[in-house]
Each structure stands twice: as structure tokens, then as C-alpha cells.
């Protein structure tokens, strides 16, 4: 994940994970690294460490976010996901999913902002 940019990560929500992987793989002539984190399936776009990366994702945490307009999720870097999520809630934002460790000591969480946008948080510290 990138920590050299305000944007750390993006996710493209899928309805049919295998179909989406096949589509993007053929459309962009690439091979995905596939991972599962709990019930979430991910197909990670190729990227170099230190640059912005992203994934196709199929997850129960997106049950209310169907693929289509507005479902690409941007993750913003922060020092501590827990502290940032607390501040967001204090400002009237809503937690969409809690702080979750994903891999290599990277942590994420999701929130809804004051305008109803779904945004992710990402940090190397919980």
C-alpha cells in the first residue's frame, strides 16, 4: 500500500468476483494476486510497493454497496486508523466497518462522510 500519497488504495466492488477478475485480466492483460481476508475475496491489481494500489473485491462489508456508480472505494492514508475513525465519528461521520488488520500490519476501516460518501482509511498503525 502507498504511504507517499493521500490516496492509499482503491477497491472496485464486484457482484460476480470470478467474472470481474476475468474481465479485468483480459481487458488489461494482467494477472491478479488473489487473497482472502476472512469472508472478503480480493484480486489485487499489480503495483509496486510505495505506489497506489487497488483491488477487485467481493465482501459482506459491501452488502449495501452494489456495483455501479459510486462504488469504487478510495482509501485515505492516516497515522492511526483507530484515532482517525474516532475523530470522524466525533464530527458526525458514521462507521461502516471497524478497524481491521488486512496484511503485513496494515489496518483499514470504512466510514460514511457528512455527504453520504463511502470512504476507507488505511494506516500501518492500528
In words, what does this structure look like?
With 126 residues, this protein is of the alpha+beta class. It has one domain: 2,3-Dihydroxybiphenyl 1,2-Dioxygenase, domain 1 (Roll). The chain is 17% helix and 41% strand. The chain has two helices and eight strands. Strands 2-3-4-1-5-8-7-6 form an eight-stranded mixed β-sheet. Strand 7 (106-112) and strand 8 (118-123) form a beta hairpin. The chain is globular and about 45 Å long.
Task: Give the arrangement of secondary structure elements.
Blueprint: E1 7-13, H1 17-28, E2 33-37, E3 40-44, E4 53-58, E5 72-77, H2 81-90, E6 94-103, E7 106-112, E8 118-123
Parallel strand pairs: 1-4, 5-8
Antiparallel strand pairs: 1-5, 2-3, 3-4, 6-7, 7-8
Per CATH, the superfamily is: 2,3-Dihydroxybiphenyl 1,2-Dioxygenase, domain 1
**How would you sum up the major sheet?**
8 strands, mixed
Q: Regarding CATH, which class?
A: Alpha Beta
User: Taking Cα atoms only, what radius of gyration do you get, to the nearest Å?
Assistant: 14 Å
End-to-end Cα distance, whole Å, is: 15 Å
Q: What overall form do the CA principal axes indicate?
A: globular
CATH T-level fold name: 2,3-Dihydroxybiphenyl 1,2-Dioxygenase, domain 1
Mean pLDDT: 83
Amino acid at each position: 500500500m502507498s504511504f507517499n500519497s493521500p490516496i492509499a488504495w482503491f477497491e472496485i466492488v464486484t457482484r460476480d468476483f470470478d467474472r470481474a477478475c476475468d474481465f479485468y485480466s483480459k481487458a488489461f492483460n494482467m494477472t491478479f494476486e488473489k487473497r482472502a481476508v476472512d469472508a472478503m475475496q480480493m484480486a489485487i491489481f499489480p503495483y509496486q510497493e510505495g505506489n497506489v494500489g487497488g483491488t477487485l473485491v467481493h465482501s459482506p462489508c459491501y452488502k449495501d454497496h452494489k456495483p455501479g456508480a459510486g462504488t469504487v472505494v478510495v482509501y485515505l492514508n492516516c497515522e492511526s486508523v483507530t484515532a482517525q475513525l474516532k475523530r470522524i465519528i466525533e464530527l458526525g461521520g458514521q462507521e461502516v466497518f471497524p478497524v481491521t488488520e488486512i496484511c503485513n500490519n496494515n489496518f483499514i476501516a470504512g466510514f460514511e462522510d457528512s455527504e453520504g460518501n463511502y470512504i476507507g482509511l488505511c494506516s500501518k498503525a492500528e
